[in-house]
User: Which sequence fits this backbone?
């Protein structure tokens, strides 16, 4: 842990010295061109979180000590938190407009971040998926996001499973839905799966006020190795989930599903070629601006697939090498980005239109989020 | 924009779109057309068969020794265990297909186990009145079915080898024999699937557009490259780095695989030899870029020399500055070898591995 401590100090100096460029923002001319997008990336040897406009132009860059993953976003207060990718021992809170200096967050002793989190709508609490790795259980770490709260860790909720990954807030504003991937990991061994024989992935609904586990849903028997990882809400408020299969490559189970509270989860396989093209892996899930189309990306298969949120029918695919980040575009369809630095606009029946060319030394990381 | 903001939006030209479409294929050499067949016949089939055979032999040895626990038999048990560990080292990096089906990997090698699950379960099992038979074992927790469990039973303080014929010996030894038989059984399943013409080897050796598993030689090559890359990473990140600490004083030898039996370094040596043999079996031809193969085999040979020069148990190796340095050197060689596989070998064979695809989340 000592080397991590040294890294952290260097990182804090970096944050203080060259974190943000509010002056540059001001030069860019007043209010940012909304909507804004967030993505983590690797640029040369640097790991950064970037605030982008809809054309993929940088608005703000926040340095990170290591690879980032996804964001908790509080649009009402113009702020966000980027989480370190699992096993993440850092998170950074920052203002989207770059006013105040960014602030580093740490998980509690014996916990690390899994890479996702959400704010409550009142902006008072930040909840992050975390690993209580000594006990081998997943928790939601709770942080004081109120003014002057300084993101002090307030405590944690149990999230009813192992390996919680993405968490989203339902439309009721108080129920959190957690994708418990079911995979036990320990930071001594990175992301190595330690319980492939005994996985129990689930979707867990947790009351953000009380911490009560109000519903827990599992996939049908025989799908224990189907790790539920990523989530998005459609227009009706149903939860869409994307999975990663840890069993034999030839099995090709359906990877995309929908869950409506109180019902059994539904899985959608899509056409055989599309399913095969996902290579047992979904890297991120997003709903379009209307909540009518769901995009699921597979960087392993180099393919983004689109799904009709009402019928579950597959609406087509976009081929994009190492494409992973998907975010809704206001004009319909999605912004996609890739580990090769490409960024563009695509959707069902909409060919990929590049905005940023693939570029050596630039890799967009896992998630792409619209503010 | 500010100092990092030098990305320039491009015009939406056809050229740019084409560049996306063919990225990763330009300039690719072809892997040998019969790559899968070469790998099966030249390496995977014999390696998996050797695992099954060594497991069977150890089970037989243990059965004899359980009935008559003499010193000579104990020597044979030690040899037999070391043999299985070495055979496993030659198979464990083939972590795709048959080895990930039916939890076979975990049945043979439930490791690492930072929370000590296997230890607790094996202790509970040893405290029970009767040991499970080999047949019963398959339905128990995978943590009590494989080599780490067997090592604990045989090599722990006061274990079967230290106190042959002592209290609880008969049932403990029966359990040990059952574990060895289980390893032989799982190894046999692997060997059957990988035998030339076997259920999995068929697909791997004869990729075809309509095949359910491998549609092209390129996909077979991708599987082989991934096995090399993840094998090299696993050896460094999981086996060595957690053990090394910041120096001899901070080393944690008990995190090493097979530390109880003294097989840590021998298993790493066998692993290195196996990985090289797997690589050689592919018969990769880089054309003008022959340096790729030369550099990769050079790194692996240096790695082999490092392990071959380390005598004795891993605890002693780690406690000495020279030994610690040697294992640190091994981590650097592993890192270099992985970089060659990812950055040079893979693209040369037309296998593109993405930033996100390589290390997903």
Assistant:
């Amino acid at each position: 842990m000592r080397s991590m401590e040294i890294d952290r100090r260097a990182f804090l100096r970096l944050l203080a010295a060259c974190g943000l460029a509010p002056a540059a923002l001001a030069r860019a001319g007043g209010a940012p061109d909304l909507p804004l997008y967030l993505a983590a990336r690797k640029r040369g040897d640097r790991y950064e979180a970037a605030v982008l406009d809809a054309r993929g132009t940088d608005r703000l860059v926040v340095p990170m000590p290591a690879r980032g993953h996804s964001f908790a976003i509080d649009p009402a207060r113009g702020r966000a938190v980027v989480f370190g990718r699992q096993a993440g021992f850092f998170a950074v809170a920052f203002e989207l407009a770059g006013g105040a200096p960014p602030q580093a967050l740490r998980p509690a002793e014996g916990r690390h971040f899994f890479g996702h989190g959400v704010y409550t709508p009142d902006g008072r609490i930040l909840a992050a998926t975390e690993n209580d790795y000594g006990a081998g259980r997943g928790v939601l770490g709770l942080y004081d996001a109120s003014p002057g709260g300084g993101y002090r860790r307030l405590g944690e909720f149990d999230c009813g499973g192992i390996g919680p990954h993405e968490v989203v807030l339902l439309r009721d504003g108080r129920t959190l839905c957690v994708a418990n991937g079911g995979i036990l990991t320990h930071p001594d061994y990175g992301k190595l799966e330690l319980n492939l024989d005994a996985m129990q992935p689930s979707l867990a609904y947790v009351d953000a006020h009380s911490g009560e586990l109000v519903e827990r849903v599992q996939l049908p028997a025989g799908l224990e190795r189907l790790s539920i990882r990523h989530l998005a809400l459609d227009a009706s408020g149903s939860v869409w989930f994307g999975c990663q299969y840890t069993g034999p490559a030839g099995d090709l189970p359906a990877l995309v599903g929908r869950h409506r509270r109180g019902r059994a989860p539904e899985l959608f396989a899509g056409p055989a070629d599309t399913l095969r093209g996902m290579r047992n892996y979904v890297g991120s899930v997003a709903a379009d601006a209307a909540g009518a189309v769901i995009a699921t990306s597979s960087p392993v298969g180099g393919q983004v697939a689109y799904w009709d949120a009402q019928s579950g029918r597959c609406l087509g695919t976009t081929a994009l090498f190492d494409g992973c980040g998907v975010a809704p575009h206001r004009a319909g369809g999605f912004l996609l980005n890739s580990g090769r630095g490409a960024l563009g606009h695509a959707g069902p029946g909409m060919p990929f239109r590049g905005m940023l060319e693939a570029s050596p030394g630039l890799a967009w990381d896992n998630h792409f989020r619209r503010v | 924009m500010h100092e990092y903001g030098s990305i320039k939006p491009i015009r939406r030209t056809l050229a740019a779109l084409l560049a996306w479409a063919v990225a990763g294929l330009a300039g690719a050499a072809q892997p040998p057309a019969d790559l899968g067949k070469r790998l099966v016949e030249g390496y995977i089939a014999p390696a998996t068969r050797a695992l099954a055979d060594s497991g069977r032999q150890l089970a037989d040895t243990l059965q004899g020794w359980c009935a008559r626990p003499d010193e000579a038999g104990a020597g044979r048990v030690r040899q037999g265990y070391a043999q299985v560990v070495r055979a496993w080292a030659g198979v464990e990096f083939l972590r795709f297909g048959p080895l990930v089906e039916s939890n076979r990997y975990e049945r043979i090698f439930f490791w690492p186990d930072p929370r000590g699950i296997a230890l607790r379960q094996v202790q509970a099992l040893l405290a029970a009145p009767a040991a499970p038979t080999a047949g019963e074992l398959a339905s128990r927790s995978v943590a009590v079915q494989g080599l780490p469990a067997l090592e604990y039973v045989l090599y722990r303080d006061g274990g079967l080898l230290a106190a042959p014929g002592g209290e609880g010996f008969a049932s403990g030894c029966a359990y040990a024999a059952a574990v060895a038989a289980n390893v032989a059984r799982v190894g046999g399943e692997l060997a059957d699937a990988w035998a030339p013409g076997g259920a999995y080897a068929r697909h791997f050796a004869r990729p075809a557009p309509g095949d359910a598993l491998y549609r092209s030689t390129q996909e077979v090559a991708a599987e082989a490259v991934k096995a090399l890359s993840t094998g090299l990473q696993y050896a460094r990140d999981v086996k060595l780095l957690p053990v090394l600490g910041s120096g001899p004083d901070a080393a944690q030898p008990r995190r090493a695989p097979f530390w109880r039996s003294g097989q840590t370094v021998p298993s790493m040596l066998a692993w290195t030899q196996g990985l090289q043999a797997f690589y050689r079996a592919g018969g990769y031809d880089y054309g003008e870029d022959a340096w790729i193969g030369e550099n990769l085999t050079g790194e692996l040979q240096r790695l082999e020399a490092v392990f071959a020069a380390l005598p004795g148990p891993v605890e002693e190796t780690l406690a000495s500055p020279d030994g610690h340095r040697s294992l640190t050197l091994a981590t650097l060689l592993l890192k270099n070898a992985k970089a060659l596989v990812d950055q040079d070998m893979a693209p040369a064979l037309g296998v593109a591995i993405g930033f996100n695809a390589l290390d997903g989340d």
User: Anything to note?
Assistant: Residues 1-26 of chain B have pLDDT under 50 and may be disordered.
